[in-house]
Amino acid sequence: MAVQDVLAPGAGDPPAPGPAAGARGVWRRLRTRPSAVVAGAVLAALLLAALAAPLLTAVSGQDPYTYHDELVNSASGGAPHGAFGGISGTHWLGVEPGTGRDLFARLVYGARVSLLVAAGALLLQVLIGVSVGLAAALGNRWADQVLSRITDVMVALPMLVLAIALTTVVPEDFPRPLLLILVMGALNWGGTSRLVRAQTLTLRRLDFVAAARLGGSGPLRVVRREMLPSLAAPVITHAAILLPSNIVLEASLSFLGIGVKPPTPAWGQMLSTATTWFRADPMYVLLPSGLLFVTVLAFTVLGDAVRTALDPREASRLRVGTRKEKTRD
């Protein structure tokens, strides 16, 4: 029997969260929170709509690029004909002022862009942050000092200003979604690195990590088999909170005109053009802004629920409560 099978974390050590705690237990705790269920359903519907955007627009008979000049009133500056932005059986959410493009099609295709950029940037942020955090915590004192100072600089940088500067110097023909992913991912990994470094410094002092070393495991094996599973819970929690921030940042860059370029639809880009139509066509402002608000709120609520579900103390409280209920029964 290996040494790591004999030695367990000490009584005073906090239990290591992560996949070892059981995904089914985390799922069960999430299902007990109505807010998490509602937020998950909203996000699932949004993701499904984004993935099925071509099918949904085909059912409606519209696309996000075709102009319909006959649906806007040129005499009034381009406001849509009809009430509520030109809503009809053909155009389910109305049309875009000035162009007559179908608003439903542009919203679902815009969801694709916003979610793709936010998720891609998140993957890059987590990859860089985890790598730098582990290297700082497990390296020598010199490496820790250098990497920690670099992380401090990245955290202190005015990210929006720097993102604007970087996106404006890149050639126009560079794919804009990919550029946003690279810029956002390369600038916003400092918080993840700090979190991983702090958690790793705690983990390396625990008994089960020492047992793995005594059992002959090399540094890479210890990181892969012992530390990374224990880091999964805090990293997932941090990522769930970071994702809505990425959505807002992408929308902000598109709103400022340096994000996704027309005619590719994006929520922030739609809001940028909608500001001049607030009085003539409020629906054009309310729909993308409301969808952005609901998406960010749902991700925030779900992220908080995931944090609670992955908290071992919360799991212990739920187990104690379950035992008490069974005892009373």
From TrEMBL:
<dbReference type="Pfam" id="PF00528">
    <property type="entry name" value="BPD_transp_1"/>
</dbReference>
<dbReference type="InterPro" id="IPR035906">
    <property type="entry name" value="MetI-like_sf"/>
</dbReference>
<comment type="similarity">
    <text>Belongs to the binding-protein-dependent transport system permease family.</text>
</comment>
<dbReference type="InterPro" id="IPR025966">
    <property type="entry name" value="OppC_N"/>
</dbReference>
<dbReference type="GO" id="GO:0005886">
    <property type="term" value="C:plasma membrane"/>
</dbReference>
<feature type="transmembrane region" description="Helical">
    <location>
        <begin position="113"/>
        <end position="138"/>
    </location>
</feature>
<keyword id="KW-0472">Membrane</keyword>
<protein>
    <submittedName>
        <fullName>ABC transporter permease</fullName>
    </submittedName>
</protein>
<dbReference type="InterPro" id="IPR000515">
    <property type="entry name" value="MetI-like"/>
</dbReference>
<dbReference type="InterPro" id="IPR050366">
    <property type="entry name" value="BP-dependent_transpt_permease"/>
</dbReference>
<feature type="transmembrane region" description="Helical">
    <location>
        <begin position="36"/>
        <end position="56"/>
    </location>
</feature>
<feature type="transmembrane region" description="Helical">
    <location>
        <begin position="150"/>
        <end position="171"/>
    </location>
</feature>
<dbReference type="Pfam" id="PF12911">
    <property type="entry name" value="OppC_N"/>
</dbReference>
<keyword id="KW-1003">Cell membrane</keyword>
<feature type="transmembrane region" description="Helical">
    <location>
        <begin position="177"/>
        <end position="196"/>
    </location>
</feature>
<keyword id="KW-0812">Transmembrane</keyword>
<keyword id="KW-1133">Transmembrane helix</keyword>
<dbReference type="GO" id="GO:0055085">
    <property type="term" value="P:transmembrane transport"/>
</dbReference>
<keyword id="KW-0813">Transport</keyword>
<feature type="domain" description="ABC transmembrane type-1">
    <location>
        <begin position="111"/>
        <end position="303"/>
    </location>
</feature>
<feature type="transmembrane region" description="Helical">
    <location>
        <begin position="283"/>
        <end position="303"/>
    </location>
</feature>
